[in-house]
Specification:
GO terms for molecular function: oxidoreductase activity, acting on the CH-OH group of donors, NAD or NADP as acceptor; quinone binding. The chain has about 170 residues and is of the alpha/beta class. It is built from five helices and four strands; from the N terminus they run E-H-E-H-H-E-H-H-E. It has a single domain, classed as Rossmann fold.
């Protein structure tokens, strides 16, 4: 913020999967904590950094990439599920705090998307996730980008605290 003076939109796409195909009792705490630090704490810290400037301008758009795992959970991914569910709850609460100041904050919950982040996800876990998608395929980055572009635009002016869906029909709520 010191270098640029203002920010109109924050689009947080940082995220890691962490341990996959691992039941909760076998996840060690440092691995769990690392996923929380990147996925959830990172979202919190970024939001805290930009809100003062956005409130001063009475305008801002904040978009956090959550996950369908935060809405429905996936077996063997408890750290990831937890971090993304926490992010969704964080967005809902912060939206109520900043809405009177012209700041809109939303999340996007994609299903599995063809990105490098999924390169270390086990084949078994990927097959399971795709089997839950009625369209029967992974999403493409361009499909997510179109939704994010709307969420970060002035056109997204009366929706805040919402979790948009990009799940190929997996989640219909």
């Amino acid at each position: 913020m010191k270098d640029h003076g203002k920010i109109d939109a924050l689009i947080n796409t940082a995220g890691i999967v962490g341990p996959s195909n691992t039941v909760v009792e076998d996840v060690n705490w440092p691995d769990f904590e690392k996923v929380l630090q990147v996925n959830l704490y990172g979202a919190i810290w970024l939001t805290q950094a930009v809100i003062p400037s956005m409130k001063d301008k009475k305008y801002g758009r904040i978009v956090h990439l959550a996950s369908i795992a935060g809405k429905e959970g996936n077996p063997g991914l408890s750290p990831y599920n937890t971090s993304k569910a926490g992010m969704i709850g964080f967005v809902k609460g912060v939206a109520k705090e900043v809405a009177p100041h012209g700041v809109v904050i939303n999340a996007l919950a994609p299903a599995v998307i063809s990105t490098p982040m999924n390169s270390n996800t086990s084949e078994e876990t990927l097959k399971y996730m795709i089997s839950r998608i009625p369209m029967g395929r992974v999403g493409q980055p361009e499909e997510v980008a179109e939704i994010v572009a709307f969420m970060a635009s002035k056109a997204c002016s009366f929706t805040t605290g919402f979790t948009f869906d990009a799940s190929g029909g997996r989640a219909t709520y």
